[in-house]
Amino acid sequence: MLAIATGIAAWSLAAPAASLARALGAIDRPEPRRVNLAPIPRLGGLAVFGALIWGLLLSASFNRPLFISLIGAQWPTLALAATAVFGVGLIDDLRSLPIAIRLLVEGLAAAAVCLLFVQLCPGRGWLDTCALAILSTGWLVAVSNGSNLIDGLDGLAAGVAIIELSALGALATFSRQPVELSATALLAGAWVGFWLRNRYPATIFAGDSGALLAGFAVGALALRISSFCSPWVRLEILLLIMAYPLLEVLLTIARRAWPVLAEASGRRRGRQLVAAWCRPDRDHIHHRLIDRGLSHRAAVRRCQLRCALLAALGVLVAGWPTLAVPAAMAALLLIAHFVYRLGYLASWTIGVPPTAAKSAPAK
To answer: Phi/psi of residue 27, each to 5°?
Structure first.
């Protein structure tokens, strides 16, 4: 019931958030890099964040034990870190921030979560814990930015977050983690309510504040909920459930770096690599699907279907660890086929949209 109330709050808050975005000029206007054909306000993260606060306040009246659990132990660390990530995204929505500042805030927030919230390596030494904290911090920053990168079509990032949270809810259910399950349900409820406003044709976008909040919160919950598994199984579960945003990050890094590595040399290469990675473009997975003739809805469905299949494999591995190897092979085949069909594996099309690649002269 609290999740439903949180969803209603997110749906209700989306309209005033859109009005505020128009008043402040936080609007995504049509341009060659974007898919939207009309100006759309982009402060949807405010609606999700406000709905989560509302759900927490409601729990104080209707589910006191849950409220006490969520304000005690390690949970305030996650709340403060997620608020910091949401805040830096909100500032970026209103006034563009340097990427170095964004990554610094995300990195500090992720490190705090990994050290104080996530059960990384119970019973092991400080050296193992520090190594895992560094790896987990990098992973959490990558997931957060991956959620931001996939937020290019109406309802895509919100739908992916809902799919990932559904998988985490299944893990929390059969591993008997009631507080984690409740937090997952509240977050899923907020995103379902927002998705009703964000699905095609969208009336509001999540913006950097919403997309970064989604990736960070879901990634942190995934790290904590999967703690009941052995280390290698846990790694596979995390990679499978969060596969789609991570795949987008890896493809973005590869295709933006490819032209620089092929042409630049010496000291210029490092500076040009950083500049290339920070430069936005129109060659993400959803862009390629649109360029190949799919409708807006069809492209979203295709991306979310892949996400759902990979997340389902993650849940399967959590329940039956003996299936870890077959599930990993199936996931690799699914991803390789998807990437191949999009044209990313052909070296001469990396960084070049499919339409441009088709029209280029043969060599």
So the answer is: -130, 135
Those residues with Cβ within 8 angstroms of residue 363's Cβ, 6 or more apart along the chain or in another chain: 348
Alpha-carbon Rg for the chain, nearest whole angstrom, is: 20
Distance CA 173, CA 228 (A): 12
The predicted pLDDT at position 124 comes to 64
CA-to-CA distance for 128 and 173, rounded, in angstroms? 29
Read off the pTM. Answer: 0.90
**Tokens (6 digits) for 248:** 């987008």
Query: 334 or 351: whose pLDDT is higher?
Result: 334
The distance of Cα 260 from the centroid of its chain, to the nearest Å, equals 27
Q: Reduced to 3 states, what is the DSSP secondary structure of residue 28?
A: strand
C-beta of residue 143 within 8 angstroms of C-beta of residue 215: yes
Q: How far apart are CA 74 and CA 86, in angstroms?
A: 19
* DSSP secondary structure string for all residues of 109-120: HHHHHHHHTS--
Burial 169-202 (b: 16+ CB within 10 A, else e): bbbbeebebebbbbbbbbbbbbbbbbbbbbbeeb
Decide: 247 and 340 in contact? Cβ < 8 Å.
no
